[in-house]
Amino acid sequence: MADMVGHWIDGVEVPGGSGVAADVFDPATGAVTRTVALASPADVGAAVASASAALPGWRDTSLARRTQVLFRFRELLDAGRQELAEIITAEHGKVVSDALGEVARGLEVVEFACGIAHLLKGGHTENASMRVDVHSLRQPLGVVAVISPFNFPAMVPLWFVPVAIAAGNAVVLKPSEKVPSAALFLARLWQAAGLPDGVFTVVQGDRTAVDALLDSPPVKAVSFVGSTPVARHVHRRASANGKRVQALGGAKNHMVVLPDADLDLAADAAVNAGFGSAGERCMAVSALVAVGPVADDLVARIAHRTATLRTGDGRRGCDMGPLVTAAHRDRVAGYVAAGEAAGARVVVDGREVRPDADGAGFFLGPTVLDHVTTDMSVYTDEIFGPVLSVLRVDSFAEAVALVNANPYGNGTALFTRDGAAARAFENEVEAGMVGINVAIPVPVSYYSFGGWKDSLFGDTHAHGTEGVHFFTRGKVVTTRWSASDAAGLELGFPQNV
Ligand code: NAD
Prior knowledge:
By secondary structure, this protein is α/β, with parallel strands linked by helices. It has two domains: 3-249 and 455-477, 3-Layer(aba) Sandwich (Aldehyde Dehydrogenase, Chain A, domain 1); 253-436, Aldehyde Dehydrogenase, Chain A, domain 2 (3-Layer(aba) Sandwich). Helices cover 38% and strands 23% of the residues. The protein has 16 helices and 23 strands. The protein has helices spanning 41-59, 63-79, 81-92, 96-114, 117-120, 155-166, 181-192, 207-215, 228-240, 263-275, 295-306, 326-341, 377-380, 396-405, 419-428, 464-470; strands at residues 4-5, 7-9, 12-14, 21-26, 31-37, 124-129, 132-140, 143-147, 170-174, 200-202, 219-225, 244-248, 253-257, 285-291, 345-348, 367-370, 387-393, 408-409, 411-415, 433-436, 452-453, 456-457, 472-480. It has a seven-stranded mixed β-sheet, sandwiched between helices. It has a six-stranded mixed β-sheet with strand order 10-9-8-11-12-22, with helices on both faces. Helix 2 crosses helix 7, helix 3 (81-92) crosses helix 4 and helix 4 (96-114) packs parallel to helix 6 (155-166). It is globular. It binds nicotinamide-adenine-dinucleotide (NAD). Nicotinamide-adenine-dinucleotide is lined by residues 147-152, 156, 174, 176-177, 206-207, 210-211, 225-227, 230, 233, 248-251, 282, 382, 384, 410, 451, 455.
């Protein structure tokens, strides 16, 4: 492996001209393993120019040939699952089985995009007016940018890139500088699948690269995923520059447990959704809302299960890996301390973890805080770590009001055996993705992924029909071929007859 991870422009890895690089860590050992080039605006310009040059040929490539590339990419990605998962683990820290799960969910979107022909079909109306026909088409936007977060180095890019490419666009991906290598792995697969050079381009970098993309005139649309403050910035700046934007932001996902729930199912789900990927998932459950008398029993079951989890190096078959950086680990631990100081009870204390790992990795063990209230920073802020906060309420109505009062609205879940309560929850709760006895309700690829309120800026969600609409523009054509219908001069507004 080269020491520095570069950009992918015109089908080759290049260092770029900025001369600036950042360290890339192995979070399980704390060691710097590589560096990553940070693009200058000129580097971004080179990437966009490459995409612009490739666009006309790709846009005019038949749907049949475009789809064949997608199918080949699907086969290559399927064959490369393990290698890609290990790349993800080495830079993100999540355990390999979890990384394999993210690749599988990304693969689902590739499979969805293989069938895009059906969704690009327009309508046709014969004789809408006398011997006048109307048909509609959906056309690609042009060069589009995808800006992704650290926590899903493969899946989040794959939410957008296959759909955009299948629809005939050229894509510039700006991955998180913390996890740069997965994007290059994907770039090589696209090339091996037969995608013409330039249709998929990668610029590594930080906010300088992001802002250069947001300001770049040839970039027609931006799909962003990251924290809410940055999502807000991206949405404002790209919109002000006339671009189409979908900016998916942060989250605070609540899992509500009613007294009639299957408590073993709920406890398993809370532990899996709270601590999987060390809580660094936008769909992680971070707030457990226990309704009525269920709380003590539920917390005991969760604490019992949490005590069995093994934290350590993701390559060693552990249940949970490290956090992404030392600074982030310290920040999360700071929230635990603040919660404790504010009166929350630390039922399981991840600060005492003894990880199965060598070196000085960025570990914090799974942590359970009980008696958390809505004014504590451990509740109000997105923590993005392995911290499960338990809030206690007296009624279903109080639980729904608590969820709805939160500014985020990504995912939420209800655990119950009561169908009427489940239906009321589905109807009343203000979140984009809802689970009933499912703690992480990530939609399958042919539905769309996205939150409400401060969890998404823009109006289109990722993949599914909404994803296809985001990456295409509609056009309606009204046609007359009959010269004998010439009506002479008539300046009134045309009416259909
Ligand atoms: P982040 O906002 O720090 O970074 C996201 C991207 O923006 C990265 O590519 C980064 O380089 C860039 N960036 C960072 N600061 C910037 C700035 N000031 N200006 C312009 N660009 C900037 O997010 P992260 O820490 O990489 O990822 C975690 C966050 O992403 C969490 O908040 C999580 O909830 C969110 N997330 C949301 C979803 C979703 O679907 N809603 C999915 C995954 C992650």
